Amino acid sequence: MERVFSGMRPTGRLHLGNYFGALENWVxxxxxxxxIYCIVDxxxxxxxxxxxxxxxxxxxxxxxxxxxAGIDPERSVVFVQSDVLEHAELHLLLSMIIPLSxxxxxxxxxxxxxxxxxxxxxxxxxxxxxxxxTADIALYGAHKVPVGEDxxxxxxxxxxxxxxxxxxxxxxxxxxHPILNKTRRLPGTDGRKMSKSYDNYIALSDPDEQVLxxxxxxxxxxxRIRKHDPGHPHVCNVFSFHQVFNExxxxxxxxxxxxxxxxxxxxxxxxxxxxxxxxxxMRERRAELERDVKLIDDILASGSRRAKAYARETIEKVRxxxxxxx
Length: 326
Ligand code: TRP
Ligand code: SF4
Prior knowledge:
binds tryptophan, mainly alpha, elongated, Rossmann fold, three-stranded parallel β-sheet, 14 helices, 2 domains, binds iron/sulfur cluster
């Protein structure tokens, strides 16, 4: 079976946008690949080093969301980056062979330096972000890396680094290929991109009342004043949500809405029901996980043990290829 590796920065509780943007694919890939999923806390530190207090709590809450969403720690290796020190060793060794111009020209680097305000990101660690990401992937000999479009330059970079390593020291590392996440784009409740910083999200762990509140607050077609006014679903954010949660019924809803045969309040209540039904199985799994506090520790311990076994193997090969094996 081909091997898949992917990582996610521990941002704490995940929202529906994270689910449809990445996690849904990760869950599905477990059926056809040997999957290794990593909580990349060192990557988070590269931008949040000034305030790392939340980090370990965020690692745990994100893991609970992964498991609730269907990541299966029996089938897949699930672990935390900082538990496997080999990531640091490979990062260091790779940094020796990477021309500075390669890291400096990565578009995400330049953009984020400009975009992320209020933090000093002109650091050595942040420049090395894609080097660490390359180490993550190469350490597990991953063939495939599921990512969003924004990450494609990093995977391309990883491929170049692997080729350079193999050119210098022999065929040791595996060249990875991206798998573009088949994403279902779910906007935030205000129509912008769903994001914690916009406070327009529905968390996977939100209670019903919160979900209802968010759904009620959504803006619908502003041209509809009375219930029987014809609506324009394509300018309505509630409709975008229906397209994700009930793909099969969008034609019917389009007709009902444009012919003024459904009111927006009813339409929102239907959506609320769909989101609840979607979240219900996750909620049950979450409750199980919360009942047994030791479970999370056990999963992390066994994940890092399994990850370490792969990582050791690669590091031994890398050391002897370079010729620094003791
Ligand atoms: N940089 C990725 C992101 O921000 C996270 C990440 C770290 C990653 N290491 C990885 C993704 C390895 C894929 C493979 O989304
Ligand atoms: Fe939007 Fe539904 Fe109202 Fe149509 S009926 S405008 S789809 S909320």
